[in-house]
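Researcher: Please translate sequence to structure tokens.
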Amino acid sequence: MRVIKSPIPQYQPLAGLSTETIRDFKGVNTYDSLAIPDNYFTDVSNVTNDDYPTISTRPGYTVVATPVGTRCTGIGVWRGNRIVAAFNDGTWRVLTLSNTWSAAVVTFAANDAPWSFANFQGNWDEVNLVGTNGQSGMWRFNGVTGIAVSGAPSGANFVTTYSNRLWCAVGKELHACALDQGDEWTTFAGTAEDSYVKDIESTRGENINMLSGSLSKLTIGFPNSLVELYGNLPSDFNDRLVTDDTGVASNRAVATQDGVMMLLHKSGIYQYTGGTIPDRDFSEIIANYPITVDTNSVVGADADKIYFKVGTAILVYDTRAEVRSWTVWRGINATCFVFMLGDLYIGDTSGRVLKLGGTTDNGTAISAYTISKAFSNASIAQRQRWLKLFLTYEAAVGATINVYLSQALSGDSDWTLVKTIVGDGTPGVQRAMVPVDKIALANYVRIKTEWTGVVKIHEYTRNQRALPLY
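Model: Translation complete:
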């Protein structure tokens, strides 16, 4: 019998196969979705880079004490360790050690005008928290009671400190008290201790809407310009226009961290170190994000982040050198921020003061999502087939994760749910295979991961084939 030998087939590796891994998440990027690096998202909600390089659910909050009125109109910190909050019922109240509000220490006619605060001692017996809102006079809290600041100009607003004086604005007028004398605002004897007043003009005829002494000089803001004031005595106080193109949305739309002032203007988000024109290079990456900058916009800062409340969203910039990322938070309607003893406190539009931290929003699970860029081949015209997709994650008990895929370049009309994961308490990092059978012959693919509860995303890994260009 004759043996027939068949040639052994020589299979060639399938062309175009590759494995792509993403485990270094860098937040939001609003440039072209097809061109940005794979580790950026086109949109997120309620996530943070706190545990960089992972992306996870943002911190929650607790409500300190009980709501007062219907709006918190400002929060100050007396001597660095006591919260004093203003409310639209016409009161200042002190947060006690038992997390309750004291009886009113200051009372005034109820209004929604936002308060600004500054600590100052001068010739007073104790450091005082001084506040103004442009409508209710100037008040001070000495740790025990509230006292009206006698002699302060009517309509005083935007109180701050600089060169051992209290400063405020009334319209275009800039006012300063006498040297170390918080009650003396009209002393003009021709001495170094005199009070000070001057009209600060802008080319648009605008009123002053911001004062800050946080950059070793006095920064004077207008809606569309910035002015700096130098000197330490009335005889050598001098002001200089910095820019007539960029100003600030309001006194609350400014925060300083590590000697850098962050500010909101209708043309964008800027950082300002004084002496030079404000710069927005750091925020160009989210310049196309849909936001609304107006007089209700608020900026706050803690040790690592800057918070920009714009419209119904809070844009969060992580300033750590190895991160430098932007995320978006929702569900917190902030009116003011203040950082005290390592904790961020937030006043809101419901008369509450929130303390950031924890895993829920005062008992309510946090919902979050991320939307990836549009993944494509080296040529956008070249189609792809996804063979496998893995998600590596951590999920607390009861957390729910939904994974969606889309073959559209943008929009929300064609998300297809392909995987649901429920946290079962299994400790540590877990891996889930995500079905990709519905993705075929796609020019681009997007991933949306949506979850409720405490979740941390460690990695996406996809195995794909780039199909021939035809």
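Researcher: Any highlights?
Model: The chain is about 0% helix and 45% strand.
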